[in-house]
Amino acid sequence: MSDLPSIYFDNAATTPMDERVLEAMMPYFTSNFGNPSSVHSHGRNARVELEKARKKIAGLLHASPGEITFTSGGTEADNTAILGAIAAYDIQHIITSPLEHHAVLHVVEQVAKSKNIRLSLLTVDKNGTIDLNELEELLQNKARTMVSLMHGNNEIGNVSDLKTIADLCQRHSAYFHSDTVQTVGHYPLDLQSLAVHAIAGSAHKFHGPKGVGFLYTKKNKKIPPMIAGGSQERNMRGGTENIAAIIGMAKALEIAVHHQTLHREEIVALKKYFKKEILAAIPGIVFNGLSGDLENSLYTVLNISFPPSDTNQGMLLFHLDLAGISASGGSACSSGARLGSHVLQGIGADASRENVRFSFSRFNTREEVDYTVNQLKELYA
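The structure corresponding to this sequence follows.
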C-alpha cells in the first residue's frame, strides 16, 4: 500500500459527504422507498418526508416551501431559471459577465443566438470585479431584461454584492437570477428580503450528496418547467423525486446553516494560514482575482499563480497528484477543455504561470497545509 497521504483541496468542485447526512439518507434506500406520487401508504409516507425536507430547506433560506423546486443539481437549476424567465417574460436583453459558470454562460449564449436576444457581457477588471456602473447603464435601455450574475465565483473566489445588484434590477424592473451554488450553506441568505427572483443550489457543495439541488423562484415571478412528463414538484419538474438525496440535502443544509459561523471561522483560519505559509515558501507568487483578500472573497477558495518554471509548466497539478494532493486548475465542469480556464483568461491571467485553485472545507487540517506547502516548496526549489 502507498504511504502517500490523501489530501483533498478541491472542495469547490465537490465536498465529502458528512456522515450524518448519509445516516439520514439510509432509511430512504431501505424501508421508506415509496414513490411520493403514489396514493398508497408507501407513497404517502414518502410524500410526507419530501415535503418536510422542502419546508426545512425553505425555512433555512427564509423562503416559502412553494418557492423551492428540487432538481438534479445546480446546472439544471440555472438552466431552468434562465430558459424559464426568457419564456415567461419575453426577455429581449440578457446581462451577465464573462466569468460566470458555464451552466450560465453556455445557455445564455445559445439562447441569445437562437432567439435573437441581445447579450451583454459586463466589463471585468484584472481582479475579476464587475462594473456596477456599467450594469446600471445597461439596465436603462428599457428593454425587457434579465440579469444573471453569480454570488461567489467558483474559480477566483470573488463575491458579488447581491443586495446592490438586486436593488438595481428591482429599480429597473429586470429579472434577476443568481448562481449561488458556491455560497448556499456557506453564507447567510435571506430570500424573503432579497430582491432576487431565482437562485440555484447544489447539495454536494455543502457536504451533501451529488445529483440533487434546488431552484428557488420567487412566488410572484413564476416560470414554466423545463422538464415535462409528469406533474411532480407542483408541475415545475417532471420526474420522480430522488427522495433519499433530497433528504440528504436538507440535512446537509441544516448542519451547514446551524454551524455556519463556526465553520466559517475554522476555514478562514486555515486559508489565512495557507496564504501565510505559501507566501513565505515561494517567492513571486500572486493570487488570482480577489481570492487572496481574506475579507472580500469566498473563504473556501485560494487561487494561486505560481512563477514560471520549466520543470512545472503544465505539470504542477500532476506533480501534486503524485504527492497525494488533489487540487485543480479551475472548474471541474470544464476540466476536459483544452483552452484552460475561461475565468483566468477573462481577467488576463499570465499564461506562462501555473495557476492552481486550492479550495477548503471544515474537514481540512493545518497538517495538510504544511505537507502541501512543503511539497510545493520542493517543486520550486
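The chain has a mean pLDDT of 95.
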